[in-house]
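Here we describe the complex-level prediction in full. Unlike the single-chain runs in Section 2.1, the two entities below were treated as one system.
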Amino acid sequence: SQQGEEDPQALSIQEGENATMNCSYKTSINNLQWYRQNSGRGLVHLILIRSNEREKHSGRLRVTLDTSKKSSSLLITASRAADTASYFCATEGINTGKLIFGQGTTLQVKP
Amino acid sequence: SQTIHQWPATLVQPVGSPLSLECTVEGTSNPNLYWYRQAAGRGLQLLFYSVGIGQISSEVPQNLSASRPQDRQFILSSKKLLLSDSGFYLCAWNQEGANGYEQYFGPGTRLTVT
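The structure predicted for the assembly as a whole is:
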């Protein structure tokens, strides 16, 4: 069964606005990761947050993790047209090394 | 630095024909290797993974098979393609790091079965 579920499925915002995507999962994890995919391309790793961390920053990205609610959020601040892409969360299970991906959120940033 | 290659980039094959997609990784040794399939507008479905030469684990019963003849080579095959095999196939590798396993993806192969 699918581990990660993102919402919303699609998000459309204006350049300069913030974009927030959420991810929920079902089982215990070692870490949660966010990836970005431009149309027709492979996925690119954005950020990893460990199960004992609550918040992490990388440039304009902010990720939070709430293990009690089994949920995570990805915030992109001051969005740019170049941020238009699909964003996936992925969970690494305890001692598995395998990542289970969600269905993704498609983000459109209008110039 | 590590790089991952996939070929071909696009492929159109008739139903019933065989398939061979190749993935190679450079700049690392003994990586874990993965094959995913992505349907249009959907997430990734893990098909196969391998932790070493000749070691293949299948996640989902498929019309597909995988092989790892060399440490950094991963091949996805089919003897007879089905229409439902169409999709975007992604190869990926990872190794355990300080925080866990970060995955690195190839550029993908767009397969259309006609």
